């Protein structure tokens, strides 16, 4: 006899109940894939981007949660959220393996259909960058046609970044973070600061004395480590698929992405290693 799970209590009647698909709004998610060409690989391309955006949504949620916890001096709760963010990026990193199964010949079959659209215009990606401290105002431009998105990005620029909140917390615990850093113009990109490096050097020279700061620092480094890997995997996949062609978004492509590899989120935390 074939096994009937309903005999073991599985619920089979959803006429009056919320089902899995209702709760997760699966219909909406699964009806959002509309290839513009007949090329077989376009579906992979669409789903890869959409799933990345979903993971980015969660990453943002967790970064925001962590930032809030730090602002409220609840650092251990923030640490857990930051661990999750690093894991999300690890997940995104593994995802490149799927995309790499698409060859240049396959991509060229539908590339023209993308027009000028590109991940360069991903507002969630920019929000993540802005939230952690990489605030490049030039990146607001592609969103000017969408006042709602511009408002989101501007609101982010008005808030202290994750790194700002960490430095404020260090200051509250008695570490000597300069007033100019605490009062900095939040809209500007973070600039390497010699005095902040000194603060981190003090922490790293005596971890047991500054355990909380030390743990937060290592979580930030962890996050940036995974984030760098994401950028590196992206640029390698891009070179593999389009070589040195210009991007659909209009940049020089590989040259642009390689330049982005040099962006540092928490520069003092990388430099401090040399100081020890
Ligand atoms: C075959 C696959 C892909 C190719 C050929 C590609 C190509 C490119 C290129 C050339 C750029 C530079 C901007 C431009 O001129 O277009 C770019 C930027 C970007 N792409 Fe991709 N990409 C691919 C897959 C992905 C995927 C799966 C994601 C995930 C969401 C993604 C997210 C981004 C982001 C966020 C940027 C902006 C990076 C920055 O400004 O630092 N890309 N991509």
TrEMBL record:
Heme binds at residue 234. Its cofactor is heme. Pathway: Amino-acid degradation; L-tryptophan degradation via kynurenine pathway; L-kynurenine from L-tryptophan: step 1/2. Its EC number is 1.13.11.11. It catalyses: L-tryptophan + O2 = N-formyl-L-kynurenine. Binds 1 heme group per subunit. InterPro entries: Trp/Indoleamine_2_3_dOase-like (IPR037217), Trp_2-3-dOase_bac (IPR017485), Trp_2_3_dOase (IPR004981). Heme-dependent dioxygenase that catalyzes the oxidative cleavage of the L-tryptophan (L-Trp) pyrrole ring and converts L-tryptophan to N-formyl-L-kynurenine. Catalyzes the oxidative cleavage of the indole moiety. Belongs to the tryptophan 2,3-dioxygenase family. This is Tryptophan 2,3-dioxygenase. The lineage of its organism: Bacteria, Pseudomonadati, Pseudomonadota, Alphaproteobacteria, Hyphomicrobiales.
